[in-house]
Write a structure and sequence with these properties.
The chain has 20 helices and 46 strands. The protein is α+β, with helices and mostly antiparallel strands. It folds into four domains: 206 residues, no CATH class; 107 residues, Immunoglobulins (Immunoglobulin-like, Sandwich), CATH 2.60.40.10; 276 residues; 237 residues, no CATH class. A hairpin with a 2-residue loop joins strand 35 and strand 36. Helix 11 packs parallel to helix 13. The longest helix is centred in the middle third of the chain and has 22 residues. The radius of gyration is 28 Å and the shape is globular.
């Protein structure tokens, strides 16, 4: 038997395993109702959404302890599990993750189960103290003897328990069974962390007859894999790899899609062939790739064993984009035609096809698939059901007659049998507890009731007229909060399009005049946010909810498409959320907002605003002709983060930077927060114009002991690193980033030349953006920043910086930023904020709002 042999990762973690496939069994409960405020997640986190009947599941699971599998062949390709339907072992490649993590999403409550196997080799007999972590249930066998049964079932929140393993000298087998009840998204993981002070054991993974040296070389090659850049608008898409093979070709297959195409099973495939010693491979021209942010699985087969890792890229072929028409109506038509041709395979594209005279058969195929999705009450069903009443009216028997009778019957049954709110019975995993879903569910209910006023809706037992009345009451309540508070999920490129989808669908299709007027007010506000907080139509700034695809996909974000339709800036894209309903309405955004998108040289835009439930966040936005910087002032410093992005500086859709504390070590993990989206620990951020301070104080128990900067050097005109400073220029604008912990440029792997890492748990970051009207050249800017007096106390988390333009800037963990002695004021506003578009002023004129 050959082995892959490794020391414990970081000297502590057992992260090398064989892992089985996931056994899955749907679990059906007696349908129940749910209750609670839509902002409940702010207090309890997103784990609040558990089916109440989970108690029944956990009770039964705890009464049935895990048993040794009927078959266990711990080798790649070996079987494990019960005799009827065993799973197959494969090598788990952690790629610097500390956990064995096979998290995912499930459309319905599902009992998920898996097995993991590794070997610990000890120098001598004796106890080995570990900490074992999982979210669901788990059992551990050491050398065939059960040593742990642990069933916390703390949904998506890892729970720990001490685990002392009595190792014998030499080989020790460790077999783990772990399971959970998946409800929507599920953190399906286990972790084994060494707690001893002596030399830890060595971890080994059996690989049968495979050559371990070649496997290690293959893993190193895949670790190094990266695209030459994260974004391509033209030319060949290039992949890089530190290819260790001198005698054989390394074949790397990439397969994946945009998020929704992946859900639809519409995958894109490319193969990169690295000849012996070759380190670059072209994947073809950008125009041959789908539009969008692509999550790809890259796989190389070495010695018959697959080595797979995720990797991402955004492709947006500029040659295929339409030239923006002069009118909103003209751009709406262009948008629908673009989606009909390039859109994701869902109802957004289906409606675009029907609206532009495209293939009815193709549109019906897409709609039928979406009906099946909604019938299963999958999470986000409300994002698609909202179109069904309009589709039936416009293109069904009462309209153009383009739909088959079979599809009409299926759509009708789908509408009449759906669960429209949490207070109706169900055992599904649909998410109700957020403002965007609340708006969508209520809008779906209203439009469905208007379509079938006399029919009985089976899940609620109400007539369509009663459904309308209920939905209107819920919508009026939603609007009362929204008009007073704005969005708690502030400035989110992920969810603002969903909000516009609900508002535009109401505006376009409801028969209720009062709600239509409210929807228009809401749409006006959405476009106000886009205008103020965008950089030339690209909505890229501080955000209350973000994901990897939003952080890295500014060309692909629906918000950029919305701005393009409304004002001709931004860009069309592949995703239609918020876009299709907008295009089918007669709405046009206020012309006055056009002035906020692009600031002229010599002018500046400053906006202080407060957003969300119970004044959730105070935002500070500063925009010039060269850059946009936005931040969430004093937002929950030191608290665990979720998906918030407290500070961002944007020059172009691709030349952007932000700072974060990773929520996990896996580069492409499913965590919320993840490696790049959100913060494991929130910093204290304060901003004045183009200057910001960012202070981190990270708890010792958090598994990630560093912060980092995203700054893709290839997207800037010039970059320079000097000591603890990074400088960059794009156009006539510059930025300087300082970190008290020092900065190490990442040279290896998917983040090569894009990431700067700062070690340690307490540190001070400074960010300064400027333009040629302040410093005549990039060199002059660098010289001025390095010469400016700077005092930093990384232990006390305090700093004093004498900026050549702004004057004396002081800030700290317990001290709000002051400018020449005047403390900044961020709160006391509303969701529109105090906005000024003016000629640039000196600090004395506006340090205090």
């Amino acid at each position: 038997m050959a082995y892959l042999k490794f020391p414990l990762f970081l000297g502590r973690y057992v992260n090398r395993w064989l892992v089985s496939g996931i056994a899955q069994t749907p679990v059906h409960f007696t349908p129940v109702t749910l209750h609670g405020d839509i902002n409940l997640w702010l207090k309890k986190g997103f784990s609040v959404h558990e089916n109440p009947c989970k108690t029944e599941f956990v009770r039964a699971r705890r009464a049935r302890p895990a048993a040794l599998p009927a078959v266990c062949e711990p080798v790649p390709g070996g079987r494990v599990g019960d005799g009827a339907s065993p799973q197959t072992f494969a090598v788990y490649w952690p790629f610097d993750d500390i956990s064995l993590d096979i998290s995912g999403g499930w459309d319905a409550p599902t009992h998920i189960r898996a097995w993991a196997y590794t070997e610990l080799w000890a120098d001598e007999d004796g106890p080995a103290p570990f900490l074992f972590t999982t979210c669901g249930g788990a059992a551990v066998w050491l050398n065939g003897e059960k040593v742990l049964e642990f069933t916390p079932f703390t949904r998506n929140i890892p729970a720990d328990t001490p685990l002392e393993l009595t190792l014998r000298k030499g080989r020790n087998s460790v077999l783990v069974f772990f399971d959970d009840l998946a409800e929507r998204d599920a953190a399906f993981l286990l972790r084994l962390c060494w707690q001893g002070t002596d030399a830890p054991p060595e971890q080994r993974v059996p690989v049968g007859a495979a050559d371990p040296t070649l496997l290690e070389q293959g893993e190193q090659a895949m670790r190094s894999l990266c695209f030459s850049r994260n974004h391509y608008a033209a030319g060949p898409v290039s992949l890089r790899c530190e290819n260790p093979f001198a005698q054989q070709t390394l074949h790397v297959t990439l397969e994946g899609a945009t998020e929704e195409n992946e859900q639809a099973g519409v995958l894109f495939t490319r193969t990169a062939d690295f000849a012996p010693g070759q380190t670059r491979a072209s994947l073809g021209d950008c125009a041959e790739f789908p539009f969008g942010f692509l999550l790809l699985q890259a796989t190389a087969v070495v010695e018959g064993i697959a080595i797979t890792r995720p990797i991402t890229v955004e492709t947006h072929a500029s040659a295929l984009l339409p030239h923006a028409a002069d009118t909103v109506a003209g751009r709406k038509r262009q948008a629908l035609e673009f989606l009909a041709h390039f859109g994701e395979q869902n109802t957004n594209r289906a409606v675009a096809l029907l609206a532009t005279g495209g293939s009815p058969d193709e549109a019906q195929r897409l709609i039928a698939a979406q009906v099946r999705f909604v019938d299963r009450r999958c999470d986000c069903s409300d994002f698609y059901l909202v179109y069904f009443p309009h589709i039936l009216r416009a293109w069904g028997a009462q309209g153009a007659g383009l739909l088959s009778p079979e599809l009409e019957r299926a759509m009708r049954a789908c509408i009449l049998n759906f669960r429209y709110w949490m207070d109706e019975p169900g055992d599904d995993v649909m998410w109700f507890y957020s403002e965007n879903h609340a708006l969508m569910f209520h809008t779906c209910q209203l439009l469905a009731g208007e379509l079938y006023p006399s029919e009985t809706f089976s899940n609620s037992g109400m007539t369509g007229l009663q459904m309308q009345q209920k939905a209107k009451g819920l919508l009026l309540e939603w609007f009362r909060g929204f008009l007073n508070e704005g969005f708690t999920e502030w400035n989110s490129s992920a969810y603002l399009p969903i909000d516009l989808l609900g508002l535009a669908s109401l505006y376009a299709w409801t028969q209720d005049g009062e709600l239509r007027a409210l929807a228009k007010r809401g749409m006006d506000y959405v476009f106000y946010l886009l205008a103020v907080h965008s950089r030339k139509g690209f909505f890229a700034g501080s955000s209350g909810r973000t994901y990897l695809k939003e952080q890295f996909g500014n060309w692909s974000n629906c918000t950029s498409f919305m701005s393009w339709i409304g004002y001709g800036c931004g860009t069309p894209g592949h995703a239609g959320k918020g876009v299709v309903s907008l295009c089918l309405s007669d709405y046009e955004p206020p012309r006055d907002y056009a002035a906020y998108f692009n600031v002229e040289p010599g002018f500046e835009l400053v906006c202080r605003s407060t957003h969300g439930y119970q004044k959730h966040v105070d935002l500070y936005t500063y925009k010039t002709s060269g850059y946009l910087m936005t931040s969430a002032a004093d937002f929950r410093p030191g608290k665990p983060g979720y998906q918030e992005n407290p500070l961002q500086l944007t020059f172009t859709p691709t030349a952007q930077l932000w700072i974060s504390h990773p929520g996990e070590r896996a580069l492409y993990g499913k965590g919320r927060p993840s490696y790049w989206a959100g913060n494991g620990t929130l910093p204290r951020v304060n901003q004045y114009k183009g200057f910001a301070t960012v202070f981190y104080d990270i708890a010792p128990e958090h598994p990630v002991d560093f912060t980092h900067l995203y700054l893709p050097t290839m997207e800037f005109y010039l970059c320079r690193v000097q000591g603890p400073w990074v400088f960059a220029q794009e156009g006539d604008a510059y930025c300087a980033v300082y970190c008290s912990a020092g900065l190490t440029a990442q040279r290896f792997g998917p983040n090569a030349e894009r990431e700067f890492i700062a070690p340690g748990r307490r540190c001070v970051w400074l960010v300064r953006a400027a333009q040629t009207d302040e410093f005549p050249s990039f060199a002059a800017f660098i010289t001025a920043m390095l010469a400016a007096p700077l005092e930093v106390d990384a232990q006390r988390l305090a700093c004093r910086f004498e900026d050549p333009v702004y004057g004396v800037l002081r800030s700290g963990w317990n001290e709000r930023l002051s400018v020449n002695g005047a403390a900044m004021e961020y709160g006391g506003s509303d969701q529109y904020g105090v906005l000024e578009l003016r000629e640039k002023q000196q600090p004395a004129a506006d340090a205090q709002a």
